[in-house]
């Protein structure tokens, strides 16, 4: 076993072993329930969940041995990346409630950088600089809840242009430019509440970015129909990934959880866990089957073109009707409150994970073709397998060798199963499609395989994003880190390689081989970069050459201060303004040396920003405090970094 040490406290990690077939008390929605491990949750059990009002049962989160299975030992564990060596993969990690995106290296699991997206960030001045405020918009909320970071595609391969991510908290979608690893667009989604699932179109390219509004609300949500849930709706949204404008929306029945796209550019699909249109927990769990709704992209485009749509409230976005009976959609009943939906990298199938059912439903894209062509009678005819996997299946990932890996939230396991064998079993043949079950620690949500959501799935690594870490790390207070576990799937059996604590709660990640990104990422800014083009335009109007001028422009109550930074000095040793002036400081880092970043922090003004080599950054504030204010460099850039400071003199 790797990563284990002989330690007298080791026993406290080990909890009693549990065997298949035993009944268990498990956490679901924080309520204790009795479950038979291999059968679908019966009505009684579900009533139990709904009715349970007692508190959380501590200590029953899991009863797995802490190191039940792990990697074979050796001097060099599989995740060993020597000092100075580069990782083979980029991991694009959602930062969850932090609202950021994190870039990790794999297999080392080292965090490389954080990209502020929906969150203010003092390090780089996100939410402080004018350049970031142009992206965040006016009156931006204090953060966001990012779940699903996905890269743009061309023909089913990563093309290294963008990362897209949802904001569930404030109903937005953001785009990150991969070349500078910086957020360049954030847009609100109209007619919707709480964007959850998100997927870029794979083929022919991105193209559309599809996203799900999870909550049903009145249309428009302006105070009407407050307590009339029959008049609540939700919509599926297609964003143009190039312009970040909304192309169209589809009104659907039920709600929308996760979404996925095919490998042909014909369809996208989404899970619904609230076919009941309920507004309470018991109601949302009532039906034994909810559904997957499939969107026929060509037909939707044609309907929009033909003008067969409406608009809602002040929004001009075309909204087509995709509710039951529409020719634009297909509703496939699947058990029960399905959650994750994942397309196989061979382009043939898409699976919806049952969550409250121990099954995953495998649907065939070509049968979906047949259904839309009128060749199949029942929506369920597109289902080609429904393997029983274990309790609480949430998400499935693929190795490109015909195997699927599904997280079992309640069982705290990853189950590896074979897709072809599951199809044979569904046809009545006696085959065992389960290949292996691996204990993870604990309660996995998303998982992801290396390159697994592309045609280039390479079956080397699997990440299990575990919501609970419990006893795996040194205690750090009541809030525990999540535990993202790295699993080697290159062989016949899964091997647990590493535990990696992460700040809550990543939800989802993608693993990208470095060859798809490494040459696309800039190591220095281009002076012509559009990210600060507007600031360059302002300087031009002031007759300023940013790369050499150090000047103060007075424009009534407005003062614009232009200066360069070059280690270890700013271009100005001081500037003077009057109390109440609106001051804009524009700094251009003229250093050419890679990694020679400067900062600008105005003491007692709550301002900091980063200026990397060849970048221009600007910030605007009101000089409301008379006196001497030193501004100083915040990035250790030079032996005389501490001396890199100048004064703002504010006259009373
Ligand atoms: S979700 S744990 Cu927000 Cu992607 Cu499934
Ligand atoms: Cu410039 Cu420190």
Structure notes:
- The strands form ten sheets. Strands 10, 11, 12, 13, 14 and 18 form a six-stranded mixed beta sheet that branches. Strands 33, 34, 35, 37 and 40 form a five-stranded mixed beta sheet that branches. The chain has a five-stranded mixed beta sheet with strand order 36-42-41-38-39, with no helix packed on it.
- A hairpin with a 4-residue loop joins strand 38 and strand 39.
- It has seven helices and 42 strands.
- Helices cover 8% and strands 39% of the residues.
- The protein is globular.
- Among the domains are: 73 residues, no CATH class; 149 residues, no CATH class; 122 residues, Cupredoxins -  blue copper proteins (Immunoglobulin-like, Sandwich), CATH 2.60.40.420.
- The N terminus is likely disordered.
- The protein is mainly beta.
- It binds (dicuprio-$l^{3}-sulfanyl)-sulfanyl-copper (RUQ) and dinuclear copper ion.
- The site of dinuclear copper ion (CUA) has 10 residues, from loops.
């Amino acid at each position: 076993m790797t990563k284990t040490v002989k330690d007298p406290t080791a026993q406290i990690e080990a909890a009693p072993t549990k065997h298949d077939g035993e009944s268990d008390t498990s956490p679901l929605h924080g309520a204790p329930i009795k479950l038979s491990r291999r059968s679908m949750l019966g009505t009684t059990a579900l009533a139990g969940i709904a009715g349970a009002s007692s508190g959380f049962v501590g200590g029953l989160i899991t009863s797995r041995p802490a190191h039940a299975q792990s990697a074979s030992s050796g001097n060099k564990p599989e995740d060993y990346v020597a000092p100075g060596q580069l990782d083979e993969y980029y991991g694009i990690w959602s930062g969850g409630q932090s609202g950021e995106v994190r870039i990790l290296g794999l297999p080392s699991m080292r965090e490389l950088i954080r990209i502020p997206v929906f969150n203010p960030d003092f390090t780089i001045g996100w939410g402080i600089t004018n350049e970031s405020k142009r992206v965040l918009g006016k009156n931006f909320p204090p953060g966001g809840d990012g779940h699903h970071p996905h890269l743009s595609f061309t023909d089913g391969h990563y093309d290294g242009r963008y990362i897209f991510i949802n904001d569930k908290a404030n109903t937005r979608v953001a785009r990150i430019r991969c070349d500078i690893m910086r957020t360049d667009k954030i847009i609100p989604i109209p007619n919707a509440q709480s964007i959850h699932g998100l997927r870029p179109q794979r083929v022919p390219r991105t193209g559309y970015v599809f996203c799900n509004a999870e909550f049903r609300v009145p249309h428009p949500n302006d105070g009407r129909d407050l307590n009339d849930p029959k008049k609540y709706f939700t919509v599926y949204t297609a964003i143009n990934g190039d312009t970040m404008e909304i192309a169209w929306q589809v009104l659907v029945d039920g709600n929308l959880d996760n979404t996925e796209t095919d490998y042909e550019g014909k369809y996208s699909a989404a899970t619904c866990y609230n076919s009941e249109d309920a507004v309470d927990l018991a109601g949302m769990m009532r039906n034994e089957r909810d559904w997957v709704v499939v969107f026929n992209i060509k037909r939707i485009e044609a309907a929009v073109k033909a003008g067969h749509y409406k608009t809602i409230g002040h929004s001009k976005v075309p909204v087509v009707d995709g509710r039951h009976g529409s020719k634009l959609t297909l509703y496939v009943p699947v058990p029960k409150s399905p959650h994750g939906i994942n397309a196989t990298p061979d382009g043939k199938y898409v699976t919806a994970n049952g969550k409250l059912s121990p099954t995953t439903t495998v649907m065939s894209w070509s049968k979906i073709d047949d259904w839309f062509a009128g060749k199949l009678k029942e929506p369920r005819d597109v289902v080609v397998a429904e393997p029983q996997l274990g309790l609480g299946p949430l998400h499935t990932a693929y190795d490109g060798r015909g195997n699927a890996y599904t997280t079992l939230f309640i069982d705290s396991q990853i189950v590896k199963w074979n897709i072809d064998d599951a199809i044979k079993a569904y046809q009545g043949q006696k085959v065992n499609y389960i290949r292996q079950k691996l204990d993870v620690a604990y309660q996995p949500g998303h998982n992801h395989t290396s390159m697994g959501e592309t045609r280039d799935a390479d079956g080397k690594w699997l990440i299990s994003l575990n919501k609970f870490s419990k006893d795996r790390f040194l205690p750090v207070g009541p809030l525990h880190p999540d535990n993202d576990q790295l699993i080697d799937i290159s062989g016949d059996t899964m091997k647990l390689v590493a535990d990696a604590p992460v700040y809550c709660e990543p939800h989802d990640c993608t693993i990208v081989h470095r060859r798809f990104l490494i040459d696309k990422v800039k190591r220095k800014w281009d002076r012509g970069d559009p990210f600060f083009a507007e600031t360059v335009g302002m300087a031009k109007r002031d007759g300023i050459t940013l790369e050499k001028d150090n000047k103060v422009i007075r424009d009534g109550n407005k003062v614009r201060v232009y200066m360069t930074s070059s280690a270890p000095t700013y271009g100005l040793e001081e500037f003077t303004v009057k109390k109440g002036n609106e001051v804009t400081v524009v700094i251009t880092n003229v250093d050419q040396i890679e990694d020679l970043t400067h900062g600008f922090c105005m003491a007692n003004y709550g301002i900091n920003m980063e200026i990397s080599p060849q970048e221009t950054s600007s910030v605007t504030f009101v000089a409301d405090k008379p006196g001497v204010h030193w501004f100083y460099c915040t990035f250790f850039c030079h032996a005389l970094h501490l001396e890199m400071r100048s004064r703002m003199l504010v006259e009373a």
